[in-house]
Write a structure and sequence with these properties.
Radius of gyration: 29 Å
Number of strands: 15
Strand content: 5-15%
CATH topology of the largest domain: Mannitol-specific EII, Chain A
CATH class of the largest domain: Alpha Beta
Structural class: alpha/beta
Number of helices: 28
Shape: globular
Length: 633
Amino acid sequence: MRLCHIMNDLLEAKDYLSLDHFIKTYEVSKRTIQNDLSYLMQMSSRKGYQLHMRRGRGYLLEVTNRELLNDFIKSLESDRLIDTKDRNKSIAVYLAMQSDYVSMDKVAETFQISKTSVKKEMREVEELLESFHLQLEKKSHYGIRLIGAAHDCKQMLADFFFENNPFLENAMQDILKDFAQVNSLLVNQIEKEDLNINYNELKNVIVWLQITVFYARIHVEKQMFMTSKPVNAIQRIAWKMKEMMEACFDIAISAESLQEMEVVLRLNVRAKQPTVSFSDQLRQDVDLFLLDIDKLYNTAFSEDQDFKESLLTHVSLLIERLHQKISYKNTLIKEICIRYPMIFNIAIRFSDMLKEKYNVEVTHDEAGFIATHFAAHMERERKSRILRFNRIGVVCSSGGGSAYLIKLQIESLFSQADVETFSFLQMDELERYHPDLIFTIMPLDRDFAAPVIYIKELLDDLDLMRIRQVLQYDNCDSLSIADADSYLYSIFDRHFFQIRKSDDYLALLQEMAQQIEESGYGGEHYAQYVMERESYMSTIYMNGVCIPHPIEICANRNLISVCILEEPICYEDKQASIIFMVSLTKEDYEVHKDITKKLYQLMNDEKRLQWVLRNRTLEELLIVMKELDGGTL
């Protein structure tokens, strides 16, 4: 990714950029940057740009072909091989793509690392391959190659594809681009055979078909011909897919590959069932669970009949699948964990209940699917909170054009409400109107029973977003929209901001959680609940951002404790760079989503995140988080 960032820096610069600029920006050695720039200069003649170097001034980029340059930058964006923690997986993919031995020098050149680094990486690569029943064969003067069953190799590639491995995605780009016809045929054949499949099952099948084509392109397979007609629906679908893929991609698909396709289809496609039956015991267990959760989180899951029926249907099929040792991959699992932390905690508890009652082991991916049902209910609840306001008064300086504009904007948020405007002289009329919500651009000279929201005379999209956000809380009270975000930032405390050096991630979490608990912010068992949540699934997310939190909301006061690591800590093959430990009261559980939304923006904005990690002050962190809603760094 560093090459991509360097290219973007050069593109955005209006003048020469010095060597020192890159050394300070990326905190690497002079030699490393010189090698990067040398590589970019070598590539320039055929990639749509010229990189000029002037002694004493630095480097300047000239665009000669925008289309070629855009393609080159896109390839750099998808090529995270220079400094990624997942390089061992990318090397495994690279070896799976080779039909013969490959030298260590070639691997080093491909991944832009030294031969010494390649040899170190190979130890991890061998361990990784063993987990898929594959091996690394070494031969003097020839190099290395991957050996093992084709099915195991495809399974590894499929797993890495679901993990969005950039090297594999880049290698499969042409296949992915031209797969629309195959997708359409698959769906049509499933419908033609009067079978059923859900979205995640469909994705499982499609990914396996894509990997089958990818593998057949590299390792030429022996084509098979039909000797007898397919005897059932699964065989008919598999044969149709084989014919289509061979025609579209000019490959041969072997009898073994065809059988694998049949197995994948059999696991994911099923007969249509008009209704899904579930036992009275399952309904009772789910009802009791939801009642307990409602008491714990002050929610209303048990009152939503549509949600309960949807959840019961999903769970009954899930239990049946898990008893057959069938589970699905969930490509959204990371995003669900980050954006819906409380909901995922509920899904963890629900999974534990299923394990205890029905003897099934629910995977993290399957827990993510369960979480989506709970999340859908919460979204409906948020929408209903907006709809609870039926009579809305808007107080303006006059009844002119600006008042009408505000009225239209407010109506866009409250489509079913009656919205009326009043001048600041019409307080009696406003009182007789009996509003259940008031927006005003100025202080009012009397008290009203309804919440009062102070706004600007001209609202922008960000203001409207803040209004919607604030009114989704159960206990919205009088406040100024200008200060709506300030509450989020007020729960950062400089007494809980630290820069640390540590080599033990769990020990550091335990120490931070204990500090919160002993300070009085975290309630009883806060530290225990944080470590319990971490034991289920790591809260280290993208680009080293960590958001640990307790599995049960138990805080006495709201707080976010921050720890910036002097050097990243490696834990479970992930690197932790900055920790945001969340402590919230039960009354403010909704705030958790707003916090994680901000942190999700931060982890996706690598430039701003690196700024925070370099500057290491609470002030810079808060400035950057406020800028995430707009503005420049």
